[in-house]
Amino acid sequence: MKRINITTGVLLVYLIVMSVWGWPGKQPDPDWVQYLSVMGVSLFVIFLLRYLQIKRMKMRDKWKEENGKK
Hints:
By secondary structure, the chain is mainly alpha-helical. The chain has one domain (1-69). Helices cover 83% and strands 0% of the residues.
């Protein structure tokens, strides 16, 4: 589980750095909808990846437990 937390943390820090770097506030006519939607989709993908990693880990543990009993 620690590895999943590290992966999620690194991806969130990367998203924060890239969103600060790409801040559209300095442009004359910023496109806030596109900026916020890209950040929202990125957050969704990061948490979807976290969910799938946890699910895969639980399935692997269950599979190992079933095979260990035989």
